[in-house]
Amino acid sequence: ILYYDIIGSEAHSIMLHEKGHITHGELKKILCALEEAKKNPTSIRTEEYEDIHEALEAFVIQSSGIDAGGKMQMARSRNDQVVLDIRMKIRDDINEICAALSNLIEGFVERAKESKQVPMLMYTHLQQAQIGTFSHFLLSYAYGLMRDMERLYLTYHRINQSPLGACAIGGSSIPIDRKRTAMLLGFDSIIKNSIDATSSRDAFLEYASTLAILTSTLGRIAEDFIIWSTTEFGYIELAESYTSTSSAMPQKKNPDPLELTRSKAAIVTSNLVSMLGIVKALPSGYSRDLQDIKAPLHGSSAITLDTIKMMDRVVRSLQVNKEHMRLAASTSYAIAVDIAEQLVMQKNIPFRTAHRIVGALVSKAASKGNIPLVKLEFADASSVLDAHKVNVKPDELMKIINEMTPEKSLEARKSSGSPSLLEQEEMIKSLSQGIFNYSTGIQKRTKMVEGSFVNLERTVKNYLHS
Q1: What is the pLDDT of residues 141-160, one digit of tens each?
Q2: Which of 34, 180, 387, 407 is deepest in the core (most CB within 10 A)?
Q3: pTM for this entry
């Protein structure tokens, strides 16, 4: 956080000069020292001082003299400084993570466009459930990640408030302009209450919570991809770049990055739990316990960003085994619910009755060596219908079974959000618009912060050369 402490000190010093508390000459000496610290951060001797704030102040005093540098700290404290620095860092992290997340969601949508008509089994309890498409799975991930994006996007507003000028806990008797420093540093507003500004960490907890939810989403996606890339499933094949081989078994293609994605989700969650434990029942006002929030907070940011970028590469490079998916869907019993629904629609019988009829047909097929339903005989259909006493002829039932291919199953879906082609195209359109909207907003926020820093740098240079 040294960089943020430097520019925070520049903004604070400029405000002190504008309020008449330090002279133009003193400001120039302070800014000159801070610019030197920015260019040569290794010159700050952090090991000799309690923290980075003291180290930076000592450097400024050594460079500019006590008469000038000793005035830099008036009307502020390490308590409001540290919160300021973390807020600026997390603000940048949110924009960077959101930009990477936008790219990942776009990657899922782009791959979904390629597989809108590729039948694929859907699962509940890891058992074959219904016929869907690979596109439908990818779009489901995109929607989950879009909610993660929304949570991060909303958290930004609560992070982007300046605590500077709250001092240790109760403000200052020296007249200052907190809104001026907030503007110089690109904040939307100030935190109104000085106790709240220095004591509260709920915005950081909210941010860490969104990262834990986000990485858990990535962990679920990783688990699906790991399962589907096994020889037993064979639905997808991961690129060589994102797998590793065994030291002993040359045929192995281990999905190491995806396995690490699962573990990273656990680490980010444990970081959140650590932070919650640290702040639990702390008294109002700064306590040194809060120092230990920084490591898990920044660690979660770095892990999340790296994990998103890795998942993006995996998604864009994986190979989809479309024929294998289609074959698995064609030979499964996942078509059963569609047959039952057609009995309801065509023969006007209760769904529960249709459910039992098709369930009995599946049992017969399974007892004959798990043969497909289309290979059942007329006599099988007749015996099942006789047992349930319904007004359906065996040839009518067999006709429904024979016509219900995976493709027909998908065509028949009418409900909103289903994997029918029309619904998938609508989802792709909706998600694409959402990606555009968030990307535009992220770029705007990033430019606002960068613009504030450019303006601050310009202001610093003007004072240094005046």
Answers
A1: 999 999 999 999 999 999 99
A2: 34
A3: 0.93
